[in-house]
Structure formats: structure tokens, C-alpha cells
Amino acid sequence: MKRKVLAILVPALLVAGAANAAEMYNKNGNKVDIYGKVDARHTFSDNPGDDGDETIIELGFKGETQITNDLTGFGNALMKVKASDTEGSDNMYAKLAFAGLRYTDAGSFDYGRNYGVVYDVEAWTDMLPVFGGDSYTWTDNFMTGRANGVATYRNTDFFGLVEGWNFALQYQGNNEGSNTGEDQEGTKNGHDDVRFQNGDGFGISTTYDFGDVLEGLSVGAAFSSSDRTNEQAIAGGIDNRYSKSAGGSEADAWTVGMKYDANNVYLAMMYAETRNMTPYGDSGIANKTQNFEAVAQYQFDFGLRPSLAWVYSKGKDLGGYNHWNGQYHETDYTDKTLVNYISVAATYYFNKNMSAYVDYKINMLDNDADFYKDNGISTDDVVGVGLTYQF
């Protein structure tokens, strides 16, 4: 019986992101839970940037307060500390920090540092122990991952009228960076790396769970569009054939996906395209990417969860590519695969709080191609192993 309970519980924990939040306070309509984990991880690779200790600590809290019978206030904060550097290093930062209000079937509204709505679909394939979810998703890259200054409205079961139909609307304020010399006002929460700046943007996502009709099956789609900052557009240049930074005044992303999660089986896949937003290598921004991810997992009753996944991204019309035309080097556009690997992994859950894992990333990029060497893109395999305590 214990093994069957674990097989049912583990998939729910993977979706929830916290194994079993500990209740700190629950009285008079106010509730506070604390959650977190210690992930003791080491990765092995011939690439120095992927080889070494990657131990981290995460600690967060979720709170709710009952304002009226129908109105609830809530907040969520999650901090992360990299424990793989020397003491005194600046390795602590906020992954999440948002607060909001929820009014019964009318939905919820929150503001702060939160996930972009495009990640609503990407999250279905971002289920691997170490790798995954990185064909086009970067933190602080518009609304594809965790992002600053996002106002999000969410509605479940379409105002209580259609069970399983959820949707979200999101607005992100500009994060332009402090450089005002490029005819932009600038903001205090921008970034000096133009790849992680953004102008005002809007996003939408929708998912549908077929419920009892097709148990475990869900489909989803998401879209976002944002202004690019002046620095980003200037970095791309008028003829960005000579630049690794994309041109254009807007950055767009769209994705569709589906998942099956029932009977101890988990299957998910997604397809996405981006325009003028996706970083690659040391300094590049792709004019366009085409991305695909697929993952298959099975939860055994005794705690083992093997996993097989494929993650792929094709960059289109990448600028700044030098090639030899027989007499001299010529700069032109090129299409290159930016991400291409297979993940073979397994996690063993001792119980709801303790697990061990191994994840082998089989890198299928061409290790002889000058493009990857010139852009600082690793073509080496990586193996990650770890032990996690979570609560």
C-alpha cells in the first residue's frame, strides 16, 4: 500500500514544485506555509563550464489571508542560494516574489516577480531532474521564464462555467537598463546585458484538461509580444547580417503543447517559435528559432521514475556568420541548430521528502563545427547526479 501511495503522490509533487510545504501558521483565516529544498548536486563534463559542484538551497513561503467570504489575499516568495561558491560570494537571489488577490470564480490578479505565461505550456516538458526546458526558455528573457514586473490575471474553469478550461492574461513593464544614451528613458531594474532587457509586453495562455472524458490529457497554447528596447534594436543594426544580435522592434513567442498524466505514465511535448528574443552562445540573439521538446516518464510503485527526453532548437537567419567564399571572408546569415540533446535520466523517491537522481545529457551538436566554438556553445556531454531533501 505504501508503494502505491508513493506512485500517486510523486507526480503531484512534481507539478506542485514542493514536496510537502510545512504549515507554520493557520488561524483566523490566515495561513502561512514554508517550503524549500537542499539539492546536493555534482555535474561531470569535459566542458569546464559544466563540470563541478552545483549544490543549491531554496527556501520559500506561501501565505493566504481570508479578507471576506469571497475575497482572498495571497503572497509567494522563493529565495535561492548557490552553495557551490566561497563564503561571502553574492549567490543569493529571489526566484519568485509576488502578491495578489483572488475573488472566487472571477479569478486572481497578482504582481511581482513571477513566471511568464508562455511558461504555462513549457512547464509540461520541463520535468527532468537536471536538464530540460531550455530549447528557448531563459530566465529574464521577456515572458518565457521567470521575469520581473509582471501583472498576471488567472482564471480557472472559465469563471466556474467550463471545468478544465483555464486562461491567463499578463502584462510586463519595461526593464530597459540604465543606459539612457540610446534615446530611451531607462529603468533602475534593467540589465546591462541587452539580451535580458525588455520593453512593455503582453502575453496570453490557455489550457484545457479533458478530465473524465480523456483522463490525464491536457492541451495548451500561449503567445507573447513585447517591445524591444532601443539598445536591443541598435545592437542588431540596420543590416544585422553583420551582427549576432537580432534586429526588429518587437519580440514575439508562441507555443502549443499537450501532456498525458495518468496511470503512472507521463508524456508531454511542445512546439514553439520565437522572433528577435532568444539568446544563444556568449552574446547572440536569434532572429528566429524553431523549438521542440518531448519527454516520457513512468512512475513505478516502488519509487523509481525513469525519464527519456529530446530537446531541440533551430536558429534561423542568424547574423554575423563568417564564411570563406574562395577569395575572402564574407559575413552573411546562417541557419544553425542551437540546442540538440537527448536526456536519459532516473529519479528514485525514498519517500515524499527524499530522492536521488542521475541525468545524462547526450549532446548531439556537431563538435567539429566552428560556429559553436566561435559562439561559446558547448558540444560536450554532461552527467548530473544528486541527492535532494525537500519539504
From TrEMBL:
Its main location: membrane. SUPFAM superfamilies: Porins. Keywords: Cell outer membrane, Ion transport, Membrane, Porin, Signal, Transmembrane, Transmembrane beta strand, Transport. It comes from the Bacteria. Pfam families: Porin_1. It is a multi-pass membrane protein. It is found in: Cell outer membrane. Residues 173-195 are annotated as: Disordered. Residues 1-21 form the signal peptide. InterPro entries: Gram-neg_bact_OMP, Gram_neg_porin_domain, Porin_dom_sf, Porin_gammaproteobac, Porin_Gram-ve. Residues 185-195 have a biased composition (Basic and acidic residues). PANTHER family: OUTER MEMBRANE PORIN N-RELATED, PROTEIN YDDL-RELATED. Belongs to the Gram-negative porin family. This is Porin OmpC. It comes from Pseudocitrobacter cyperus. The gene is ompC.
